[in-house]
Give the backbone structure.
Amino acid sequence: MKKIGIINKCAPHGNAQGRESLDLTLAMSAFNESLSVFFIDDGVYQLVANHITDGSLQKHYQPLFKMLDLYDVENIYVCEQSLLQRGIQKEALLIEATVINNAQFKKFLSLQDQLLSF
């Protein structure tokens, strides 16, 4: 089975990439057990709890992240440097995720057979 990595680099509002990535992750989890999800750069904002979507004209999709556990998506990685640069503490994340440094991030990405970036 191919190892597939889904990279989230975009903020949660202002575009549909975060929602599309989450939808794809949930759909692919039914067919692939070797699925890893990565959050880097502004993508880490997707995991910060209590987003306010008023005025963004977008549906609030953040509660769906809790479904990753139900779908057995266990390989969730967050870039430590991205968190630090944005002043985000691990405790502020909506779901359980493994915080990894840049070297680990690159290593885990290199282990994937296919990468999809949003």
Remarks:
- The two ends are 22 Å apart (CA to CA).
